Amino acid sequence: MFRTACPSCGAEVLFRSTISALAVCEYCQSTVLRNADEVKDFGKIGKVLEDYSPIQIGTSGVFSGRAFTVIGRIQLRYEAGLWNEWYVSFDDGKQGWLADTSGQYMFTLPLPETRTATSQQAFDTFEPEMRYEHGGRVYVVTDVRIAQCVGGQGELPFALGQGYEAKVVDCRSGDRFLTLDFSDVTLFKPNPTLYVGEAVELSSLQLQLLRDGETILASAGRLKGTSAVLDCPSCGSALQYQAGVATQIVCKACGSSVDCSGDKALVLEKHTAAALYHATLDVGDAATIDGVNWKIIGLIEMEETHDADSSWTEYLLYNAQQGFFWLVESNDGWFRVNVLNRLPDSWSSESAVLDGVRYRRPFELYSAKVSYAAGAFNWRVSVGDQVSCAEYEHNGERLCKEKSNTEIVWSKSKRIPNQLVQQWFGKETVITPASSATTESGDNQHLAMLFIIALLVLNVPLAFLGSNVIGGLFWTGLAVWLIRLPLKLGGDEE
């Protein structure tokens, strides 16, 4: 352990690792560069944005039988959001990185120079779903992005400052993870640096000193060391980001996309064409699922690009300890959706295999776009965003592949009964997807109308003949009540 005074402000700066090249002063955000016989101010770096992550400097755990401690952090921002890279020091003196993005975690270790990539394939030639071979294993490119370092904290293994650009290609093979880092590629170092590892669950790392739920919710959406609370800079309404993922927010009042990952909220885009959504649930609704409290922090309305009548609503639910999951409301009913932190074993245009189970594609390939969004998200959501989709099904469970220009994402969903959704959210009336309710209501009204016509045809002539007019009027009145009942129920649900 090495202690020194910050060259800028004089505060104590601590180096826990003997090989850390840089540490960020907690008081003035200066990056302190340590050379063999001196320390110097390397310039300032931005403050990290506190987010939903339970990890913090000092968190310790075990990966692959080796104990480690988190000693540093950088935040990287790309066009659609940001993510954390936690720098960890193992007890044996080695270092690694724990990536933390959208509630998913990947542990990677740098490969020695002698084992790095030998292919000189350029960064801009990579695209999602390409194959890339390394070490006798075939990987699939899942993410291609350019990001800038916007914040730092603790110790870091190399010198970087505000504006440091990272050019990375992420690849997966099952739960194995491979990153090609082109950030330091030069004429004299033409090949990217490779990091290999695997997708992990926090529960498997035996972590200690995590942030608790109350701490996360109290600090989320704020720059470390500040108490700023943001309003929409477009209309002035309070931005709802209590749940802890307030890096990208869609203002519910005016539809503006607001980037909250910098020192000031920035209006990215105003959704002037956004239509009023017709979802059953809303941002802020709370649910209790298996004794765990969840809250809807964002909702997205999607529609097929070539069929506006085919639409559905996706709700993002969050819990400080459990992370995220999606609840989807569609014409087919309700589905609970979890984003996979691994790839299927294999897939083609007709089927996909996950854990040895083959899922068949019963639906046509389609494209979908965002038609409305509101609430908080950990990436930028914009009206008009498009993805191409392929769905596969087996015994009521579905796999879905969503592909954009920069990434592919796989998810797994399972149908859940309407009554269970009602129980989760404590609704007094049975929750039925809007389209299904409309269809059922329309069918009831159609049948009731036919009933009324038939009764009138039968009873009006009888009335002139002096037959049982009172009885006929009773049955006709009952039919009128039946046709009005669905209309009343529909109005109550709205």
From TrEMBL:
Keyword Transmembrane helix set for record: yes
Superkingdom to which the source organism belongs: Bacteria
Pfam families recorded: DUF4178 (PF13785)
Annotated DUF4178 domain residues: 56-200, 283-417
Keywords: Membrane, Transmembrane, Transmembrane helix
TM region(s), chain numbering: 450-483
Keyword Transmembrane belongs to the record: yes
Name listed for the protein in its UniProt record: DUF4178 domain-containing protein
